[in-house]
């Protein structure tokens, strides 16, 4: 039995497995991206928390660490996007994941340069716009995902089939995927593959702070919540900062009051500096299924091995009740 | 290839397919429950919107319409629960789904009567309590489900594996399941089967108002939202009533103000009487995937046929990109 019945992503990116590592601020530097690509997935350098010179340095460093395909993630609302896009093209990058904004502005230029362009969406309507704009694929990211998120709150289980029937380009499922069983579930929904964020954030190669990683290991599924819906919705692990935001929101605080409480640099403070009480700790609901800090190679091995077990079970192999997944 | 590799639910309920119809107020009367059981699934009479005498009438009517197994759904916080439980036992019902409250109070009596008891949960912690209390299975219902919902907002894609690893009893996945692909996704996650609500609510045999059914057919995935989180969270289709609640919540309205706006009988007004502007229209995010009002037999046929196609694709059958699902 072939492991993958659908090989569109493998062909699109030139990778072995249809597993993309999410571009996550303060977590996905050169070391993580290279490790994922070396393990047969697609690593992405996340530009969202990097100054342009730091971004260039990380892109170059990935080249030193792997000969396999990798890409970059550029949030389009980020102030240095144009400069980072120029740097990436000049450095020979030809796989671009874009998010947070309209892909229309950049897709023409990237396609002219021969690049593969994938945009992250949270609704089927935006997936259709991406296809019309010329994107090669879409990442469909559900409500359960960590970090910034859509206002419509559509979950991965609903969003993926909605997008699969709305567009012809490959759909990459994201949000809530940290185990082989969740990977197979995404494939069942019609996704060509998955983008895995939180599980790769909590690895040895991720650049997140050790205290942040341990906080995620200790967390349960109900410990993350989507807050700041009147600003840009973001899923955060519970801490003193998030509790104050929740209280402010419950009493109908204005956008200005919330912005004042939020301040600046909270994501850096939480995930990079390890301030567990006052920083933003961006992680998905799968935090509850994350119980250790393994290497990327180990995460990839578990994803693939567990997916094989699940595929075999679905094919009528055992009739056994499944064991609880490790991830 | 056997259709189902896991047959725990078939054994538990004596049914052909591991597909349970959700007990939904104002929708799941005798006609719907009997149609689902006749199609090889497990039909449930939902007591939540019935006076005890009406409930007895519906239970008796199912017996006239099918010789196959069926059950009842009893919300434990409902004022007539004790009386309905007595009626169901007296009428020979031996399959009980309970929700909204602690199963501890009733499970002993039901087990003593030789009944199968299944409780609906939204967290792995409650799933564990159900197993300890003696429940035979749990329905794990995610954030995307219609109607009343958990405060933790855990989605089906995360909740099901969380519960599968927390308990040994069978886990029935609910929330976001209206297509064969979603059914297979649930099985991949380790569920023994699924509970389908919204898709069965929008059938010819459901007792919901025709205008309510048409409103769901017209809706997209982003048109439902979870509101009234400070009371009992409930997922509703957008209308004038829900818009007012959303505005009140955004300005930090008190519980009393919200309760006053909610008033009484909104669910009846919306789903039974068809007041699309001022009633509560309880439906899941899968509303976006529901495009017609077929018979229950047709829904079951689609679920099973589409699941077969997906299982065959996952087994390496085609390598084709999947077509968009009908449901």
Account of the 3D structure:
- 2 copies of one chain form a homodimer.
- The first copy, chain A, has 14 helices and 11 strands.
- With 327 residues, chain A is α/β, with parallel strands linked by helices.
- Chain A has 2 domains: 8-207 and 294-314, Aldolase class I (TIM Barrel, Alpha-Beta Barrel), CATH 3.20.20; 221-285, no CATH class.
- In chain A, the strands form 2 sheets. Chain A has an 8-stranded parallel β-sheet. A 3-stranded antiparallel β-sheet of chain A has the order 7-11-10, with helices on one face.
- In chain A, strand 5 (116-121), helix 6 and strand 6 (137-141) form a beta-alpha-beta unit.
- The longest helix of chain A has 19 residues, at 296-314.
- The two termini of chain A are 24 Å apart.
- Residues 318-323 of chain A have low confidence and may be disordered.
């Amino acid at each position: 039995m072939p492991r993958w019945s659908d090989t569109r992503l493998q062909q699109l990116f030139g990778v072995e497995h249809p597993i993309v590592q999410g571009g996550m601020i303060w977590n996905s530097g050169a070391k993580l991206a290279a490790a994922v690509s070396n393990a047969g997935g697609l690593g992405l350098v996340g530009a969202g928390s990097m100054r342009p010179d730091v971004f260039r340095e990380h892109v170059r460093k990935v080249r030193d660490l792997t000969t396999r395909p990798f890409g970059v993630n550029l949030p389009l609302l980020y102030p240095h996007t144009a400069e980072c896009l120029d740097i990436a093209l000049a450095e020979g990058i030809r796989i671009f994941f874009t998010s947070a904004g309209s892909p229309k502005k950049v897709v023409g230029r990237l396609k002219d340069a021969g690049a593969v362009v994938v945009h992250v969406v949270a609704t089927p309507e935006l997936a259709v716009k991406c296809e019309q704009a010329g994107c090669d694929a879409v990442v469909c990211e559900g409500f359960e995902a960590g970090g910034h998120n859509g206002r419509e709150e559509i979950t991965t289980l609903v969003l993926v089939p909605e997008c699969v029937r709305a567009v012809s380009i490959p759909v990459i499922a994201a949000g809530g995927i940290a185990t082989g069983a969740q990977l197979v579930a995404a494939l069942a929904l019609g996704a060509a593959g998955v983008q895995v964020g939180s599980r790769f954030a909590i690895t040895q190669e991720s650049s997140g702070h050790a205290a942040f990683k341990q906080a995620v290991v200790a967390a349960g599924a109900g410990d993350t919540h989507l807050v700041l819906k009147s600003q840009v919705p973001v899923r955060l692990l519970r801490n003193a900062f998030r509790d104050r935001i929740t209280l402010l929101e419950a009493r109908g605080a204005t956008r200005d009051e919330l912005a004042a409480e939020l301040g600046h640099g909270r994501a850096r403070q939480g995930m990079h500096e390890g301030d567990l009480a006052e920083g933003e700790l961006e992680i998905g609901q799968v935090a509850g299924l994350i119980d250790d800090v393994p290497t990327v190679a180990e995460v990839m091995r578990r994803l693939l091995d567990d997916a094989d077990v699940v595929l075999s079970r679905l094919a009528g192999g055992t009739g056994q009740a499944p064991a609880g997944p490790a991830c």
